[in-house]
Amino acid sequence: MILLTGLFLPKEKTDTFVMAGNFWQSSHHQQWLLDKQDLIRERQHDLQILPEDEYQKIFIFFASVIQTLGEQLKLRQQVIATATVYFKRFYAKNSLKCIDPLLLAPTCIFLASKVEEFGVISNSRLITTCQTVIKNKFSYAYTQEFPYRTNHILECEFYLLENLDCCLIVYQPYRPLLQLVQDIGQEDQLLTLAWRIVNDSLRTDVSLLYPPYQIAIGCLQIACVILQKDHKAWFAELNVDIERIQEIARYIINLFELWKTYDEKKEIQGLLNKMPKPKPAPQR
After folding, report:
1. Distances from the Cα of 107 to the Cαs of 11, 90, 175, 202, 230, in angstroms?
2. pLDDT at res. 186
3. How far apart are CA 228 and CA 247, in angstroms?
4. 3-state secondary structure of 192
5. Which of 31, 60, 102, 162 has its CA 20 to 30 A from that of 14?
């Protein structure tokens, strides 16, 4: 287990350099940083059917689905991350029975690619990619082919927009992470590992609970411990809430611990069968 020992963050150095100023006026900050207790309350229906660890495993799986779809479509990581946050925001307010996650996942990618100005993915390419990925990459989870078509994606997109309250700008930890590592002294190995840990953090709830710059610091802390890099003096100058940084680190370390014993290929089909079933897909 990774222990974050000896990392102290007294409030001396300002942290404003790691977060764009307009984040604080954004809907991300004002509407979409949620309270942990509210999150648990919203999930009560699903958690009556699925224990917390099984619920988490389902979301780890669908984060992987979004990541794989994004890579097959050759999307930037920023687009994939935004799609994953949309997915998590939707289910932060809704039960799994509202919409099949297998439909919502590509819908989030479809919307995120437009919001992040990557360009609109053609409907046929999106559906074809979904069919290929489910058949070739996730056959251990689904025995049948991808069941949805363009009209399902378009209908689902309207429902997603409504549930997101049209709050579509998502601030990610990547930019503050780049600034933090540059301030430390541009260590490529440290940046590469911390970036991967930020990607892993998308499989936890931290994007719903904490500002991106705090997530970046938490991921950087873990990377420093793994690489045995002593940057305590640098961390000591940051003006951050140490308890919140440690909470973020615990979420991610708990994910790593879960991964050690979680055999997705053996477990996920049973979990998907147990999952609350959605209503029929919306029809045009």
Report:
1. 42, 11, 25, 17, 43
2. 65
3. 21
4. helix
5. 31
- For 198-234, the pLDDT digits (tens) are 999 999 999 999 999 999 999 999 999 999 888 888 8
Amino acid at site 57: K
**Tokens encoding 216:** 């970046």
Question: How crowded is residue 273: how many other Cβ atoms within 10 Å of its Cβ?
Answer: 8
Q: Cα(183)–Cα(177) distance, rounded to whole angstroms?
A: 10
Residue in this structure with the two tokens 């780890």, named with its chain if needed = 60
238 three-class SS: strand
CA–CA separation, 242 vs 250, rounded Å? Answer: 12
* Six token digits for residue 61: 């799986």
Identity of the amino acid at 252: I
pLDDT of residue 279: 61
Residue with tokens 């997101």: 164
Angle at 36 between CA 226 and CA 57, to 5 degrees: 60
**Is-contact 272 138, C-beta < 8 A?**
no
The first and second tokens of residue 282, run together, are 């919306």
Cβ-based neighbours of 102, under 8 Å, separated by 6 or more: 62, 65, 134, 142, 146, 147, 148
The amino acid present at 212, given as its one-letter code, is: P
Distances, alpha carbon 240 to alpha carbons 227, 233, 253, 263, in Å = 22, 14, 20, 37
Structure confidence by residue, pLDDT tens digits, 117-157: 767 799 999 999 999 999 999 999 999 999 999 999 999 99
- Per the confidence metrics, is the pTM higher than 0.70? yes
DSSP 120: P
Alpha-carbon gap, residue 75 to 109, rounded angstroms: 9
Which one-letter amino acid corresponds to residue 82? T
CB atoms within 10 A of CB 220: 29
- CA angle, 100 then 102 then 104, to 5°: 70
Query: In sequence order, what are the beta bridge partners of 13?
Result: 238
